[in-house]
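Service request form, structural biology core

Requester: graduate student, group of Dr. S.
Request type: structure prediction, single chain
Budget code: on file
Notes: please return the result as structure tokens.

Sequence provided:
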Amino acid sequence: MITIDLSGKSILITGALGAIAEPMVRKLVAAGATLILLDIKPEAAARQTLSDWKIPPASYIYFPTDIIFTSSYVARMPHTKIPSYASAKAALESFARCMALEYADTGIRVNVVSPGDVAAGSSLRVFDEDPAYREFVLRVSLGRRNSPESIANAFLFLCSPLANEINGQILSSDFGAGIGNRL
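Core staff response, request fulfilled:
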């Protein structure tokens, strides 16, 4: 018999109270994992379900939540040197729209924030060190880069009551980079 020890592991599960979730949650908890559970059910209903499943409260953290994906303008405006990244982001956007259709009748909303070039992380280094990349970014994004705060604002908007009727959409916070290249 194989024994799997997941002690010390934290595992995130979306749709954590759905039809196939019970055996998954039970097995992971029995193996010693701490679970981070996401679902659309209100917290009281989730705690009751988990209690009915005999899942100890100390073995999980629950968050009632919608899910927002982060994409990139390259999902629609690919360029050289990053074909796998651009393809993955394009697939993510299609996946999010499929999920939005799939779960629309349950009240789960699925949206995507698609930034342009954000002045943070590895992009800072590449922008500073690669003149061709810098010229490309400044040409396709109205000569400006996104701030991390502007992307946070897009997420904040989608999570707010102002976006209650927005589902399956790609919110492009990209200074127009996704429109196309200027000559």
